[in-house]
Design goal:
362 residues; alpha/beta; seven-stranded parallel sheet; six-stranded parallel sheet
């Protein structure tokens, strides 16, 4: 099958640090190639893949040279133009257009978008199915008018929980995100520390992770991005507790850098307070043989096998008590859950079924 993979362009593929959507698109692309499909990957400069790569922008947004990215927006009398930094929205529109023009020319059997709402408006202008993976995009209410206008197009949810945010869309399947299992080898012997991995934003609950660790007397290691809009939150709620002893902030780590911490942690804390549509951290931890303690939000009850690969809790008190039971859980059971349900191979086979169904129904 001829597949166009329309990836985000915030990071090159595979991303070297943050970039969960890019990582999923990369994992999927590589596995589809292994399955024998003819995949064309539309992505930012710096992308490397076994698929055919079409780079639509010289750089990814996150890796754009700093002098250009920080260039002041001002009128230049020597050129007569308003100069300034690159425009992400304009570059994304070009990115989409390059793919869609080739799709309109009949080059592909299916186009698969990982781009929020931005490719949807082209879905009725091409002669092949446009499949959209949501990645939690329906969480943003301001985007709902676009989604509902194109609600008849095929959507794939990454968990059943994700559908509750906009249930009227045409969901053709739920396909869980998949990881490359070899990147997260299992470890049977655990240390005593707890791990928090993810954006240090209010909805992710890093402050709650700190409280759970302090009340349980466990050391907590934290890794993740501090976004500019949440700097005040971090400075007020988290930073005062980061002492380098009981609570240590490791910075923003790549998956490769994070893997050793997954392997040795006694457990991973996931105390979110929003309907998170998936949680790659939850899967990566289990692949490493490490259980989770997570709140009952979003996809987490789907990802965790209660009492076998972790504990789903409804309060801080329950989370603290759960830390005492982490040692009773089997690393092998955690790994088996990841292997069976959340591998990149399983993900690719799920999407293969989606593509086949949609193209055969034309």
């Amino acid at each position: 099958m001829r597949i166009a993979m329309l990836a985000p362009i915030s990071w090159p593929l595979p991303p070297s640090g943050y970039g969960p959507w890019e990582q999923v698109a990369y994992n999927l692309t590589e596995e589809l190639v292994k399955l024998g499909h003819d995949v064309t990957l539309f992505a930012a400069g710096g992308t490397k893949s076994s698929a055919k790569v079409v780079t639509t922008s010289q750089h990814a947004f996150s890796t754009w040279p700093e002098p250009e990215r920080s260039r002041k927006r001002e009128y230049d009398p020597t050129t007569g133009l308003l100069e300034g930094p690159p425009d992400p929205r304009a570059l994304e529109q070009l990115h989409i257009a390059v793919c869609m023009e080739r799709a309109a020319g009949g080059e592909f059997d299916v186009v698969h978008s990982h781009l929020h709402i931005h490719a949807l408006v082209f879905g009725r202008l091409i002669n092949c199915p446009l499949v959209t993976t949501l990645h939690g995009a329906t969480w943003v209410r301001a985007a709902h008018p676009v989604f509902t206008t194109y609600k008849d197009l095929p959507f794939v949810s990454i968990s059943n929980a994700e559908r509750q945010m906009l249930p009227e869309l045409n969901y053709v399947a739920t396909v869980y995100n998949g990881i490359c299992l070899e990147d997260f080898p299992i470890e049977l012997q655990k240390d005593d520390f707890l791990l928090f991995a993810g954006r240090l934003s209010p909805e992710k609950g890093p402050d709650l992770a700190v409280e759970i660790a302090r009340r349980s007397g466990r050391r907590l290691l934290m890794a993740g991005m501090i976004e500019p809009q949440y700097r005040d939150f971090y400075d007020e709620k988290v930073k005062p507790h980061v002492d380098g002893r009981q609570v240590e902030y490791l910075g923003l780590l790549s998956q490769k850098e994070l893997a050793p911490f997954y392997r040795k942690a006694a457990g991973v804390l996931f105390p979110i307070n929003w309907c998170e549509p998936f949680g790659l951290v939850a899967v990566e931890a289990q692949a490493s043989g490490t259980p989770l303690i997570a709140t009952r939000f979003g996809a987490l009850p789907e990802i965790i096998v209660e009492g076998e690969t972790g504990f789903v809790v409804d309060s801080i008190d329950e989370a603290v008590k759960a830390t005492e039971k982490l040692g009773s859980l089997s690393p092998a059971a955690c790994r088996a859950n990841a292997e069976t349900r959340f591998s990149a191979t399983a993900m690719a086979k799920g999407y293969d079924t989606v593509y086949t169904s949609l193209t055969q129904s034309l």
